[in-house]
Each structure stands twice: as structure tokens, then as C-alpha cells.
């Protein structure tokens, strides 16, 4: 019954690339563009391009922040390319913290699966802090580009998943941006009003120079 | 130190609404627009506008699909307004199914928390089915507007959370669209090639008329 | 008079690709991107890249749906690339039907040129059907991603043209998506509530397997 | 079967405006926004909000340009609001012309239904003219914001329909912009290099002053 | 000549709001939306809605940062609404500094008019610093959401103007976000790794509490 | 302290292209796309990709318009790619003029640095002229795609800088579009209502043919 109409479509689409527009799995071997990566040839796409298991594994929290972040951005999961979505997994040991950071290119929502997390973000125009303790099953949004953080405020390890509104939202960790590069100490002090000694100390810890 | 610059900002922003642009919590009492709802006055916004607990509660699966869907779209969680994100919770009892549906306005990613789920979507241009069994911790994407479904394929109840790339992505359940309204039986049959008897039977079950 | 300013521009634009931004005719030999195809070199573009005659030819309606669809999407007409537009021609013999389908990536407007067409779409959130008989010169919109259909309800052949809000809006024909692939019969039945026998029958007709 | 899931949706959507997001018929009584007009209450929307018959009527070409333009932009057809589409009807008597103009907010495609039309647009960066005679059934695209025109080049009246990539693309007719307002004659001459006498003559014809 | 076509337009546009779409001057008395403010009635718009003189006045740099920022965002200049642009004026006395900050909603370009400015931004993914001394006439871009700063590195006062890619890009000054609100000292320390004493000192200077 | 989290990121990002998303400096050697040029490899990007000095040089105004335009669009300054911004410098000698033109792809804001400039734009729907004399420090916006112009109305040379809301907004100079190409004289006359003699004269001056 549909054979003819299907044939018509097939004919019209023959030697076309229209299939790619149902989805656009990233071909990471090609140059990125402002809208995302060029698409992998649809004939080579399989269901495994749309499924990712990397978030099923707990991160190693044996570190000084007692936390780990596992990402499923377009670089890790090319199936997100062009779809305006990405994800991440947060493992926080007791006293674990996800340090202050922003996502320059996307908004975030966090879902608490286990434990208790104190999370907050800071308004840009008023510096008001929106800060609350989240329990299992709670979700909280962090608007695009605003500083935010998460802290395990409970007595057991916490597990949470985050979803973001871009396939590649970026992460700028304030501490790393200030203290893990070669930005001269006096410049860091001047633009942040921190003491020189404090800046030097943190550069030492984070491997910054100058 | 910052007092002066802060004062300068305050002065410039006085009697302005610029604060609203950090975020735009929906005022559902006003008319929606193509870009989302008008913003609630920022002075009335609290942290509770950014936190939602409705997904922490299991849905009632004592029904014929043995499944329940809990939504956190802008209508349920106004904090999502303008941020390009929404969420949902899927509870699937043993043999439960989320029937065939699309999200006209957004792409989706599913995260399996408990159990085993067979999920799939269908390509528009080729009708190819991308279909796989997902285990705990797996994520899978469903590109915008494409038909997809989820089935509990395990021996225990399944729990999953979905995130979508719009604050109000919509849900069109194919069965409800065909059999739960007053679209005349002969029209349904003509545009779907189903038998009249089959259409009448499903209209009876779903409360459709004509 | 303008010679100097023109020269200035020429100088500044020398060895630049800025010309491409007036338009971006698709180079279908390159990989698609989330925003569309890379642009053909402007020096090779002629007026024929902006003109398409394929919709001037009636489609063959000697088939079981008594209808034909001719597309002018980016794959057929590369001049649409990046412009947010595409078109199609619908020929419906007496009793012809364009089966239930969606366009995942675009909204549609239909213009009736000859005959009488019953057209409708179904709301996602309420399942309300918006359904009307269109006469010559009438236009009707079908919002993005919503199920819709067209039926020749007159006594003469009908001709209509559709315009869509994307260069590659896609077409998902519900019947083909369900019955023209290898999605297992029991899965189709489970996600649609159709009888196994009905599914098998339609798979037979449409060439589906499993 | 679906009753429960439907009930669940209904419950969640109660007292929500989520229905509006399937579509957003313009409420022209409210202030426009950068994304379009606020939406009419969905409960008051009927199929007639999605159907427009104004393009079925031929325009009166008994005028000096021997042509008429009928618009179906959001102001005439509120159903287009938010959908990224609009339309227009062009009637050109023998020797009729649609004068040089641009659409600041959208691209256009023209479809010739009757007669023969010479149409063209001018590239911005190179001033190259893309100019061709179109016959019945031909379509031609005019990229956003570029100067274009249409002339009846046949021996019979011509009829064409245009579709545009915005619900409100705007129309700037160059001649009207220069000669139908109070922009001082010497300014018009200075910015166009036309003779004062020519400017005065055309202001007289078009009702311009100063 | 154009009278008829003009009349036709007038007729079609009568009692419409289509004029508003040429521009959308913000009506700050109405609620903002995700796409910007609703538009002022076009009949009340004058040329003064499109002109702003507030950047012509030097800011007062007699403060501890020896700098001043004057904004022309939508709140100060409603004519920018919906146009994807805003501006600001930077006055930096000798040794003046614009502290570390981000614009969550837009990219920035700076133009140096007088003096010498050391400006830089920090990459999110690699923490690489892009840092250079700018002279009169130089421009430099700061991509959306990335931390950046400007310092007067010359022996005379510096003047610069910035343009941003949003009518309301926002400004988040890192120091103010951390030290000018009631975010508890131990939380600030925990998410930034600063010493408690340092946090208390800066809170004292900036008026923060807790 | 951050070393571990940094290491985690590094690990996840290894062999990824995620760095490119902080910015996307144009690789002009590759084909443009509807969203802009593909990105230069981030490892080859230096601060000089984000700084441009070409606007620091006065243009040569010894020409018939007594004005010069220097552009910093993506073709001249690849650092703007994907950021939604571009700039230009206008030098106007006494009596200099920037002729009537549009930017098909972007809105513009002008900032007067020296002298006095009469600037204006013309509304599309109403042909109303928004026209004013700008002094040093004034800014004025020109909405996307609308005809506008600038004239030195003072007794000294004028200098201004413009910013636009696209990396490649385009420039269509009305006079050049009409009189600097091979569009037949009778066609130009027919679509503009100018006299044949006037068209021929201007074609002669601007180098047009036919």
C-alpha cells in the first residue's frame, strides 16, 4: 500500500544526504563549527552511536575534593551532537565538593539519586545566592553562565546526575582558571583583590606558575 | 573596594528590570509567548522557584500500561522557563510500557536508574529502527520529533529519568492521537490503513467517538 | 562616485569568503552539519542554483494511496540551504490520501490550487483534532512535529503545494514507521495496542519483517 | 488502556498553560515581543485560527504598477505566529511589476502558478544579479534581506504565491522608502546620488514631502 | 505610482501590529520574556528611542578600583531590545582595573579609544590565558561566558567602549559574587579553597555577611 | 587540590575536540556553513587570533563620497566567528557621506567619536524616517535589514565606529546594487520608476553595463 509512496520518497532522496537531518552524530575527526560537529555518514551510524554507558561507573573520589565528575558531552558521546543536550555524573564522598564553576554555553539541572547535597548559584545582577539542601529525588536548575557549586552535606556518599542544555556547554572552574595557569600572580591579585601570598599559595597547590 | 563599582551598577540598574535576565521564572498567569512565559517579578523569586521535588515520588503503575509518567515541564516547574530544559520520571512495573510517542518540540535523553529497559526510536527518512536494551546507568538519546518507546524488559520494576531540550517539549502519544478523540473512524482508517473494526475497538477502549 | 568605496570593499574582501554569507547553496558532497550543509564556492554559483523546476511536474498517482508527493527539500534543491524554507507538491487523485505523518523539524503551510482537500492535525497535549475542508485558494498551517494528513474530498483530482519552515524538515509517515521495517511484531503491538494479526497484516502489505 | 496515562497527564497539566506550546495563535490585542505575539488562550482556539482564505481572491491590478500584493503575515493570519512561516499572493497584469524591495526579517520562495515572470535578486557583497525567467511550476529563492523584484514578462496575466521564513518578515519597498516620506530631498539625493530634480519628481508622484 | 500598492498595504495592515516587527523598543513596564521585553506601541516610538547619550559622559573613577563602567543595556537603552546588541563605556584611571567577571548571556568586543589596556580572558576547558596589551584603535573579543578582565597598563587614563552580542548580557563580577552577599564563609572557602581568614577579610571590605 | 579533578577532566577530554567550543576562530580555508566557518584547530590558536588592529588606521577619504569604511567582519577578523559580533570604522571628511545601505544579516549600533553625524533609518512598514544629528559620545541603533545612512553634518572630519549583531552581517549599498552591475537599464527603471536617462547616467558613473 505504502510501497509506491515509499518508492517515490526513495527516488527523490536517492543520492541525497537528507537522512542526516533526522540526527547528526558527530564526526570528531572533522573541524567543529559554531553549530556543532559535521555529521557522521548516516550509513555508518548504528544504535551504539545513540547509547552511552560511561555514566554507569562511579568516579574515583579518593582525591582532595573527595568528588569526581564524569562527563557525557559531545566529545565523550557524539550522539548528543546538534541535539542541545548533554549529561554528567557527580560522585561526592562524605565532605565531597564540586568547586565553584560555570557552564559558559548552557543551563544545568541536577537530579539527586543518593544522599544529601547543598547546592547553590549566585545571581549576576544582584549577587543574591539561591542556596538549598537537596534530598533524593529533588531537582534544581542552574541558569546558563551563573556561578554554582554542590557540596555533600550528608553522612553518606552522594550520587547525582546533571543534564545541560547544550551538547558542549563547557566547564570553567573558577579556582583552576585563577590558579592553574601562568597568569601572573600580581594580575590575579589585582583583578580578584586576593592577597599576593594567598594567590602564590594556591598557585603552588594547583600547579600555576608566574 | 567593590562598593563604588557596585554602587555604579545599582545606580544604572535602578528602576530597571535587568535582573530578570539572569533567569526568567515563568509567570503562568500571563499569556505564553513563542519563546516561553513572561518572567515572574525577580523580587518575588526565591530558591524554591528553582527546586522541584515532584520527581521524587513513584508514579502509580496499577494501570493497563503498567507504567506512569511524571512530568517536570514548565507547567509543573516554572523554573525551567527559558532555559531549554525539562525532565520527567518513568516508572515501569514488570511488563510496563511507555507507548509510542514523540516530543514535537525537543530531543530527549533517558537515564536508567533501576532495572532493564528496551528502548528504541525510528528514523523518519529511512524507517530504520534504532533499538537496544539499556541497563542501569546507560543513557540513550531520542532525536527531536522522532517516534520512540520504552519497555520494561526485565524481571523487576524499572525506574528511569528523562531530560529534554525544551522547557515545554510536548508529548504526542500516537495511540491517544488516533483513538482518544472524535476524529471519524473512516478517516482514521483511511490515513492509517488500519481496519475499521480495529479502529472502532481501540476508540472504545480509549474513549474516542465517531 | 562609488568606485572608491567599492574598491575599498574589494580590497578588504580580497581573498575572503565573506561573499558566501549572502547565501549558502549546499555542497551536498560535504558532510552535513547541525545548521545545514557547507556552502558551495560562491564563484561557482549561478542563478540556476536558486531556481527549481521539479515541482512543475505532476506526480504519478497510480498507486494505492492515489497520491504522490514531490519534494523540494535541500537534498533536491540545494538553494534552500540555510534559508529556513522548503517546499513540496501534492497530487491527489479522486479518493487520494496523504497518510498520517509528521515533520520532525518544521512547521508546514498548505495552499490548495485545485480541488477540495480535507486536512487536519492533532494537538499533542489535548488530542483535539483541528480538521477542515479546504477549497481552492485556502491555506492551512500544521504546527511543527504534530500529526497531520490530507484527503481529496472532492470529485476531481486535487493539487496543492506545501511550504515548510526548514530546508530539511523531514517526513515521518506513521504507517511506514510501524510497518515497513524490522521492528518485531510483538513490540509494535505492545507500544500501539494493535492486535498482533493487524500488525502482521500491515507488515505484509508494507514489506515489514519480524 | 491509555485512560490512566491520560489521567496522569491531565492531573499534571491541570491549571497549566502547557497546551499553548503545541501552537501559539497570536493575540494581536497584546504587545508584540521579539519572538512574536503572546498566544491566544488555547481554549478559545478553533480550526478557523489555522485556516486563511484571503489569498484565494485576486488583487486589483488596475493601478500604475499593474500588480497587487495580498499578504498573509501574522497581522492578517494570526495562526502563523511562532511558526516561522508566512505567505503572500502576487497578481501581475500584463506588464505588471512588483517593485524593488527587501524582506528585512526573512527569506522568500516564489511559486509561479500562471504566466511567465522575470525575477531576480542582487548579491550584497558582489552586486552580482541572479536573474531568470520563471515559468509555471518553477520556484525561485530570494535570500533574506537582499533586494529583489518580479516582472510579468509574458503576454497574459501572471499569478504567483510566495512563502517566507518568518511570521512577520516585513517589506521595504525601495521607492516608497525614498520617495513616500518627509526625508529631505537633498538628503535623498546625497545618499543615493540621484539628481535633485529626479527626487522631487518621484516625491511628487509618491506623495513625499520636503 | 506606488499609491495603489501602498494603499493595498495600508488596507491589509489596518488594525494590525505588524509595524512593531521593524523594531521592538522595550516597554520596561511590562514583564520581560525569554526573548526580551514586549514592544512599546509603535505609534509612541520616536527617534529618541533609538539614540542614547549616556555613554558620552565619563564615569567617576575616584574609587578603589580607579575605574568606572557605564552601561547601555536594554534597561538603560530600551532601543536595543530584540536586536542582539548592547554597549558599555569603560573609564580607567592610571592603575585602574575592571575586575574579573563574565557576561553569562553574551560575547564582548572591546575598542580602545585612549591609553593602553592589558586585557585577557581564560579558556574554560584548558585554563589557557589569552592575554595582551591593547593600544589605541585595537579591538579584542571575549567569548561568551568566559572570565575576563581589563587593566590600565599605561601612564595616562584609558578610555574604551565595549559592545556585546545581547541586549541584556548580564555581568557577574567574581569578587562580588563571592564576597558581597550572605553566602556562609565556610561555604565560600570550601568551594574556592581560599583561607577562612581571606574570605572574612574580603567579606568585610565588600560588605558580605555570614 | 584541584589536581585530581583536573586530571579527571583531562582524561575525559583526551583526544576530544571539546576545547573548540570555548571559541571557534574561523578557518577561512574551509567552506563556510549557515552557522559560520569551521573552527581553526585550538592548538594553533593564539591571543593574536582574538586581537585586530585594522580599525586603528584612518581610511582614505579622498574620494567622491569623502568617506571610507574599514571592516572587521569575520573575513578580516576570524576571531569573531560564531560570536554574533562584528565591527567597522567610518571616517567621514567634511561633507562626507556613507550612502544608503542595509545589512541583510544584522542590526547595527553607531558610536560617534569625533565630529557630528546626521544619521537615519527608514521603517519598512510605514516608511517613517527616524533621523537625528548625533554628537560625540552618542550611540544610535539601526534595526536589522532596514535602509540607513550617515552624513557628516559638521565643519570637521567625523570618526565613528559601528558594531553589528553578526560576524558577517553583509552590506548592500543601494546605489551599487542598482548601478554597478549588468542589470538591464530598462529593468532598473521599471522596478525603481527612475528615468532611463538617470539610470544610464548613474551606470556610467558607477561602471554598470547594459
Automatic annotation (TrEMBL), chains A, B, C, D, E, F:
GO molecular function term, any single one: manganese ion binding
One Gene Ontology cellular component annotation held by this UniProt entry: apoplast
CDD domains: cupin_OxOx (cd02241)
Localization: Secreted, Extracellular space, Apoplast
Disulfide feature: 24-39
Metal-binding found in the keyword field: yes
Keywords: Apoplast, Disulfide bond, Manganese, Metal-binding, Secreted, Signal
Cupin type-1 domain mapped to chain residues: 53-200
Binding sites annotated in the UniProt record for Mn(2+): 101, 103, 108, 148
Alphabetized InterPro entries for the sequence: Cupin_1, Germin, Germin_Mn-BS, RmlC-like_jellyroll, RmlC_Cupin_sf
Residues in the signal sequence: 1-18
SMART domains referenced in this protein's UniProt entry, alphabetically: Cupin_1
Binding residues for oxalate: 103, 108
Source domain of life: Eukaryota
Entry's family note: Belongs to the germin family.
Protein name: Germin-like protein
